[in-house]
C-alpha cells in the first residue's frame, strides 16, 4: 500500500502548468488542512487579491484566459471574507471566486461573458 501523505498544518500553494494543443496554461492550487489535519483540494478558492489605497483588488485564480460566468454581487454590496462573489469557467467547469476580505464592493470591472486572466482585476473590495 502507498505511504500516507504527511499532514499539512497550514495552507500550501503550488503551480501546475499544462500544455495542450499548443496552448500553455498555469494553474495555482492551494491545499488547506481539513479538520483531520491533512490537506484536501477545495472546490472554491479565495480569489487572489492585491491591496491598494483604493481597496483590495480581486483577480481570477487562473493564469490563462477564462470566461466570467457569474457575478454574485453589485457595486455597493457589503461582503464577508470567503463569500462567493463571482465565478469563472475554466477547464469546462465553473469555479467560484471568494472574497479575500470583509468590505464593500466599490468597483466591478467585468461583466458576464468577459474574458479575463489573473492580471485583470474583477472587482475592488474596500
Mean pLDDT: 78
Give the strand order, joined by hyphens, for the main sheet.
4-10-9-7-12
Order of helices and strands: EEEEEEEEEEEEE
For the record, give the distance between the C-alpha atoms at the N and C termini, rounded to a whole number. Answer: 50 Å
Assembly status: single chain
Our Rg estimate from Cα atoms comes to 16 Å
Shape: globular
Helix/strand-derived category reads: mainly beta
Poorly predicted sequence stretches spanning 5 or more consecutive residues:
35-45
Query: Main β-sheet: number of strands, strand sense, barrel status?
Result: 5 strands, mixed
Strand content: over 45%
Helix content: under 10%
Question: What report would you give on this structure?
Answer:
The chain is an all-beta fold and 126 residues long. 0% of the residues lie in helices and 54% in strands. It has a five-stranded mixed sheet, with no helix packed on it. A hairpin with a 5-residue loop joins strand 2 and strand 3.
Amino acid at each position: 500500500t502507498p505511504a500516507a501523505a504527511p499532514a499539512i498544518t497550514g495552507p500550501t500553494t503550488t503551480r501546475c502548468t499544462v500544455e495542450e494543443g499548443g496552448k500553455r496554461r498555469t494553474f495555482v492550487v492551494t491545499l488547506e488542512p481539513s479538520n483531520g489535519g491533512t490537506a484536501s483540494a477545495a472546490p472554491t478558492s479565495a480569489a487572489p487579491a492585491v491591496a491598494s489605497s483604493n481597496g483590495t483588488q480581486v483577480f481570477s485564480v487562473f493564469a490563462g484566459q477564462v470566461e466570467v460566468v457569474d457575478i454574485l454581487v453589485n457595486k455597493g454590496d457589503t461582503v464577508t471574507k470567503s463569500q462567493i462573489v463571482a465565478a469563472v469557467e475554466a477547464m469546462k467547469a465553473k469555479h467560484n471566486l471568494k472574497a479575500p476580505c470583509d468590505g464593500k464592493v466599490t468597483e466591478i470591472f467585468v461583466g458576464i461573458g468577459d474574458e479575463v486572466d489573473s492580471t485583470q482585476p474583477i472587482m475592488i473590495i474596500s
